[in-house]
Amino acid sequence: MSESHETWVDYYRVLLVPEDADADEIKRAYRRMARRYHPDVDRTPDAAERFLLIQAAFDVLSDSERRAAYDEERRARQKREEARSGPVTLRWTLSRHPLPCHEEAQIVYALVDIVATAALDSGGLPLNLCLLLDCSSSMRATSVQRLREAARLVVDQLTEHDNLSLVAFHDRAQVLVPNNGPVDLPAVRAALNTLQARGGTEIAQGLAAALKEVRRRASPRHLSHIVFLTDGYTYGDDELCRDLARQAGAAGISISALGLGANWNEALMDDVAALSGGVSRYIDAAEGIAPVFHEQIQRLRDVIVRDAALELEPRGGGTVVRAAHRFFPAIAALDVASEGQLLLPMGNIERSTGQTVLIEFQVPPLPTAGPVPLAGVRLLGRMATAQSLARSPLVQADLATTCEWEPENPPLDSRLRGFAERVVAYRLQERAWRDLAEEQVDQATSRLRSVATKLLELGEVDLARETIREAKRLEATGQTSLIGRKRIRYGTRSLTSLLPWHRPMPRSPREQEP
Asked: Which architecture, in CATH terms, is 127-303?
């Protein structure tokens, strides 16, 4: 089959079946479409040509040998297209395509994937890193020892091209290792041996010192980041912490805000991460510090686009964005309250996961058949190797579908459904905590039970059991445990982090690429 755009046809899209459709599914799709588009039934001018295309698609996909050869060429063609498209590309899948003509507004979901292509060099940027470590008296001796071990593991992952500083804080901040350039291993190891738990917890002092150290050697040639761990609440400087996080974000310095145990401020840690373009994480026990530190460094090495944002411009006269969620490294709701053009923060985009966004559109009434534009999408950001601190356009696409009077209704794309189901669990538990904050205990309890049911449906048995325990505790006492709340909140955020199907597969019938 020829490579040319004029002659090559995606037969899966013709029959509106996914790439992994079995023989029975292909046969049913063929019969359904053949009945609808047979020239004796379909009187449109191109009916005969369309019917022949449907027949050709069935002939290839129903023959195992011809289908295998076709699939191999399809994958090779996709790789060639990716090589021509640049370092990142956008792919998108709709929940319904085409839409039915209707006198009332309709909801349609778009799953937008930001994918690194084969054209991208896999080398990562050198790091300009600060470890900001809580050494207040709430950190037990065993926790401090684990902290030392985790920091040593980070040092072992660094190279001669990386910069490192080390800041400890309690009721004051102490720069144990200043950011003097390449890592001085003996100095770092000696400084780590001085860590001990004492004093109170004043996070703003630590953040200010860490930000000062990272700024000393911040440059476009390095990826600047602060790994910040605490196990406690700060004393009255929450807003100063948020302001420092904003300053970090404006300077291109992201923060990983890591909370250890049960007694730390989730809202503050989430804000510090979000305002700086970083992530917040929950660590259940001190044994988990080293694996999380290791993962954070690996993820920094994997960054391909810094400070990314998805520009979304609704089209079609009346199309509204009702909700949007991104999924990596954890589920996060995006602000869509503004009218007109939206700028959705994506943070740093990593090569191994890319980024995936689920967008909920409300489409206005469609009284007549024809094209239906949904939105223009443009990815802005800085490629990891770029020497500028300013965002630039990287890739764009037009999300669109069509409207028909009696369209086919193929099964919902399995990836889109999987992401959407996890958003449901995430949103339910977020609403439960809002209900509890408003002292609506019965409503919060009911929502937590719904979360548990959804988690069981998703196969997340341990998290479902935790949620059921907290629902029972809430019903009996009017409150949940601190540790249970954190396990549920951060557990539901992480529902997509390790899914085997999170990466987009070769394009399906309802999937598009610019």
From this structure: 3-Layer(aba) Sandwich (3.40)
Report the distance separating Cα 447 and Cα 463, nearest Å. 15
- Nearest-angstrom CA–CA distance, 46 and 39: 9
Say which amino acid occupies 250. A
Measure the CA–CA gap between 462 and 380, rounded to whole angstroms. 38
DSSP 9-30: --HHHHHT--TT--HHHHHHHH
* Contact in structure between 161 and 126 (CB atoms under 8 Å): yes
CA distance 433 to 440: 10
Strand bridging mode 127-134 / 223-230: parallel
Residue ranges, comma separated, of all CATH 3.40.50.410 domains in the chain are 127-303
- Dihedrals φ, ψ of 238, to 5°? -60, -45
Torsion-angle region of 306 (φ positive above 0: left; ψ -120 to 50: alpha; else: beta)? beta
Tokens read off for 292: 């999380």
Q: Omega of the bond prior to 18 within 30 degrees of 0, cis?
A: no
Task: List the structure tokens of 20.
Answer: 């992994």
Residue 226, phi then psi, degrees to nearest 5: -120, 125
Distances (CA, A) of 41 to 16, 47, 55, 381: 20, 9, 16, 50
Nearest to 152 by CA among 198, 186, 203: 186
What residue spans in the chain does CATH classification 1.10.287.110 cover? 1-86
Q: pLDDT of 54-110, one tens digit each? A: 999 999 999 999 999 999 998 888 777 656 656 788 999 999 888 999 899 999 999
Q: What would the two tokens of residue 54 be?
A: 């449907």
- The dihedrals phi and psi of 335, each to the nearest 5 degrees, come to -75, 115
Evaluate whether the domain defined by 1-86 bears CATH number 1.10.287.110.
Answer: yes
Residue 501 CA to residue 400 CA, distance in Å, equals 25
- 3-state DSSP call for residue 88? strand
d(CA 357, CA 199): 43
User: Which regions of 315-459 does DSSP assign to beta strands (E)?
Assistant: 320-326, 332-333, 342-350, 355-363, 370-383, 392-404
pLDDT digits (tens, 9 = 90+) for 305-342: 998 999 999 998 899 999 999 999 999 999 998 888 99
